[in-house]
Write a structure and sequence with these properties.
This protein is mainly β. 9% of the residues lie in helices and 49% in strands. It contains one helix and 21 strands. The protein has one helix at residues 2-24, and strands at residues 33-35, 39-42, 49-56, 62-72, 80-83, 87-90, 93-96, 101-108, 117-125, 129-134, 140-145, 149-155, 164-168, 172-177, 183-185, 188-191, 198-201, 204-206, 211-215, 225-231, 234-240. A hairpin with a 6-residue loop joins strand 16 (188-191) and strand 17.
Length: 243
């Protein structure tokens, strides 16, 4: 009786602990549901409506609930989130049979005046994924994990303005986005003229107001180089001259 109770409470405790861990460190390979998009951008010259498809990859029916959160100070140490009021989901809750997909409509009520708005939209199933795990003491515990899947949503201001300031010193690149819309550094290789030597460049999303420092990639310390960036749906080249 004692062993059964102990096993039961270990199972509950471990499930809760891992459930909390999973919310902060998602692992898509474990998820029962999947999204067809993980990043959406709303531009002021386009319709304020986009769709995202949710698919149930589990072998059981599941109810899914969608929630939107508005992010403040994105990408900064003071980043925080709160329930969103300016973006709507339809439907917000629905049921999916195994293998079934459902399209969810995202509607932006209004575009911001001066600064891009950042949201996270999370879809949470009500059916946990169960697995059995052995503890160090040899006790067998059954773990139930509920995995939420999310998408990043960027709503551009009515007049997007690009102004990414980049400075370079002997060891680092220093970025400061003084514009009102996100800049996406593309993950790519920078190669010499005959492409005999290529150096990987790190990708990064730099939100409005955000500062970021990056060590100059090894092999490029004494070289001027470039990187592709994406802003307002347009690709361009960012130059990193020698200091």
């Amino acid at each position: 009786m004692f062993k059964e109770s102990r096993k039961k409470y270990l199972s509950l405790y471990t499930a809760l602990a891992l459930g909390i861990l999973v919310l902060f460190h998602p692992a898509p390979a474990m998820a029962n549901i999947a999204l067809d998009k993980v990043v959406l951008t709303f531009a002021p010259d386009e319709r304020p409506v986009q769709n995202i498809t949710v698919t149930n990859h589990s072998d059981k029916p599941t109810k899914v609930t969608g929630t939107a959160f508005k992010i403040t100070n994105s990408g900064q140490p003071t980043e925080s989130e709160a329930p969103a009021q300016d973006i709507a989901l339809a439907p917000k809750a629905f049921e999916l049979e195994p293998g079934q997909s459902r399209m969810v409509r995202l509607v932006v009520r209004d575009f911001p005046e001066n600064m891009e708005d950042i949201y996270r939209v999370r879809f949470k199933p009500d059916t946990p994924e169960y697995r059995t795990q052995e503890t160090d003491s040899g006790t067998s515990v059954k773990i139930g994990v509920i995995m939420s899947m999310g998408a990043l949503v960027m709503v551009q201001p009515k007049v997007p303005q690009q102004n990414l300031i980049v400075t370079r010193d002997a060891t680092q690149l220093h970025y400061h986005n003084q514009g009102n819309t996100t800049v996406q550094l593309q993950r790519e290789d920078f190669c010499n003229q005959d492409r005999s030597v290529c150096v990987p460049l790190e990708g990064k999303r730099i939100y409005p107001g955000m500062k970021w420092d990056l060590d100059i990639p090894k092999g490029l310390e004494n070289t001027a180089f470039t990187q592709t960036i994406l802003v307002n749906g347009n690709y361009s080249t960012l130059a990193y001259p020698l200091p």
